[in-house]
Amino acid sequence: MKLLLKTTVSLGVLCLTAGAAFADCGIEGTGSVRILSNDFEALRLINSTAEECAADGITVTANATAEHKNLQVPALSINPAEYSVAVVANNSIVPLMNADLIRPLDDLVAEYGADLQPNQLIKIDGKTMAIAFMGNAQHLFYRKDILDQAGIAEPKSYEDILAAAEKIKADGLMEYPLAASDKPGWDLAAEFVNTYLGTGGEFFAPGSAELAIDNENGMKVLETMRALTQYMDPDYLTFDANGIQAEYKAGNVAMMVQWGSLAGDMLDGEGAAEGVVENTVLAAAPVIDGGTTPAVALWWDGFTIAKNISDDDAAASFQAMVHGISPEMVAANPTVATWLVKGYEPGPNAVGVIATANAGARAYPMQPYMGLLHTALSAELAEYMAGSEDAAQALADVKAAYDTAAKEGGYL
Amino acid sequence: MPHKTFFAFILPSLIAMVLFIALPIVSVVVQSFHVEHGRILVQVESCQPFGGCTTETRVDTAAMAELREEQPMGRFNGFGTYLNRGHLAVDEIGAILANNNGIGDIVTRIYNLPLYKALAFTLVFCFVVTPIAMALGFVIALAVNTVPKMVKGPVIFFSLLPMIITPLIGSLILYWMIQPNGIIGANLRVLFDDPTLSLRQSPLLTWLSLLFYGVWTNAPFSFVVFYAGLQTVPADTLESAMIDGASRWERIRYVVIPHLAPLATFVALVQLMDNFRVFEPIVGFSAEANATSLSWLIFNDLSGDAQLFGSAGATSVITIIGVIILLSPVLVRTWREFNHKVV
């Protein structure tokens, strides 16, 4: 009897809270919300929070998939668009902008965006095109115990990291103290972009698509990237971010520059060897060559609303997403990501990203032809990193591949 | 069969072939002759959560929409895409041939061009894997043919497993096994007494692993076809050969192999075609640094933030031409045999 009572009460409470969630969302009118997003924990959480808005006349569906970048342009090109919301990042908003597939949000922000902070509004040409809700960056993860044993302080630059790696190796503490996501493809290109941002150089000549990395900065970046590999597992060319995460957890690595979004997973320590998690320190990304800018790109994730949908759907979608990223959701899930939302108190997993942002790291470039450069880097740096080509040749190859693609893409 | 009946008989498949094979190929060819319109760029101010506002370059979408309205296919580029550095690279090769330090230098520099690098691995894969896989398949077929009837079913099933497994999964499984802490990788380290041995680090070892995978996954197809063929070898001829005192090897060499030769042509045709399109193992083995193929180039053009449809189209057409060239000797031979039989 007691059990029955308990069950009834908890069920009742459940119904009440669910009801409250419905009431909280309170979208007026009717509309259909169809979300397309990448597939990781923070986004799945936002999607399921937005789905609470489903009510009479309001339908909410979400598709979280790693293939979102390939889907978004064709899916938003048709009229009416397959998805009313596309969740994007600095780089994936560019194809949508290039093809004019997303709508300005200023009216919607004025009407429904009371909870949004000014720095969440991504403004392009004076118009709000996206609402950012989380930040991300790669930053330094290091093992305090190993560095203490070698008598080294926290490394602040790539030069420090190289010296520390040499000492750790010489002391016989670890054979391969470093790791990086150098897998040819997106990862390797991102490593180059990161490090190059730290030099303070620009990727393109101002106002044009002319590539400008064939200079001292480019050479310095490549030399540093290769110098790091001598302290890495010989298979370094096959490791992506998940690969180095596993190596680090296994206790084989002392220092790595890894995604802030994987810091939560690291601190959870699932599958980690003994002593790894409690000795891990998250710090700002290193600088390079005496510079002061951290050598990584800052990323934001945000949502955009499709152009080819009815105004009703757009209004419903905007409200559902604002509910999805509401301060209440963030307050309930502070450790899932580095939120940009009002009232967020950074947890232990966010210190690295925040330190990196505070140190003045630059955002991943949003030029329309940046994607072409990223693709050129991803294919042409592999031979240099494998050691079968010199840096000058690698830069020349990148330039040639980029020029070819940019001509074909109509930018040059 | 009267021509009319024959035509009516094959009409449905003819329609399907035109719709699903011929038309897509035509569209790919047309696509490969076009590139994107020249982009009209404008300077705008953009503001982000970090770093405040900056002036950035954007595409003027309204102006681009007008251009696209006029010419939806994009700009006509003729053979421009085919000849650029990403494909046949005629200018680059001209420059290399005009100014170089000997044969070694020429080869290295041409190998540095994406299409030729991909072509090198693709051709090696074709010409190493096809014969070895066929020979292995034939040996398995001979062996299975002599197994007692009771266990034949299970043995055939196990021999077919590599073909049943999805290529991407198959290559991933092998990739994990050859990792330094995988069963094959760890044993190789012990065997060669070299604690730093890794099959993934050098181009040569990566190529060898990929070729090994190719043979493993392709052998079952040859096996099935040859095994079926073995059931049709005339028992009389075999018996008379035995009476004449032929050994098992002599029977295989002088009776079985000549009997299966036409089948071998068929298998070679299919396998060459398949292997020329090698793709999954490169992705599965994360081997992009050391080995690429024509199909991988197409994949690379179409994935990522910026998609190059013209470039992918041109590589596809080059692949089709490559397949035709590869198959021409076999096709010519089949055609001659066919004519010979009719006469």
From TrEMBL, chain A:
The keyword Signal applies. It is found in: Periplasm. Residues 1-23 form the signal peptide. Belongs to the bacterial solute-binding protein 1 family. This is Extracellular solute-binding protein. The keyword Flavoprotein does not apply. Its main location: periplasm. SUPFAM superfamilies: Periplasmic binding protein-like II (SSF53850). Keywords: Periplasm, Signal. InterPro entries: Bact_solute-bd_prot1, SBP. GO terms for cellular component: periplasmic space. Pfam families: SBP_bac_1.
TrEMBL record, chain B:
Gene3D superfamilies: MetI-like. Pfam families: BPD_transp_1 (PF00528). Residues 119-330 form the ABC transmembrane type-1 domain. Keywords: Cell membrane, Membrane, Transmembrane, Transmembrane helix, Transport. It is found in: Cell membrane. Its main location: membrane. One of its GO terms (biological process) is transmembrane transport. GO terms for cellular component: plasma membrane. It comes from the Bacteria. The chain crosses the membrane at residues 6-30, 118-144, 156-178, 204-230, 252-270, 311-332. PANTHER family: ABC TRANSPORTER PERMEASE PROTEIN (PTHR30193), INNER MEMBRANE ABC TRANSPORTER PERMEASE PROTEIN YCJO (PTHR30193:SF37). Belongs to the binding-protein-dependent transport system permease family. This is Sugar ABC transporter permease. It comes from Devosia aurantiaca. The lineage of its organism: Bacteria, Pseudomonadati, Pseudomonadota, Alphaproteobacteria, Hyphomicrobiales.
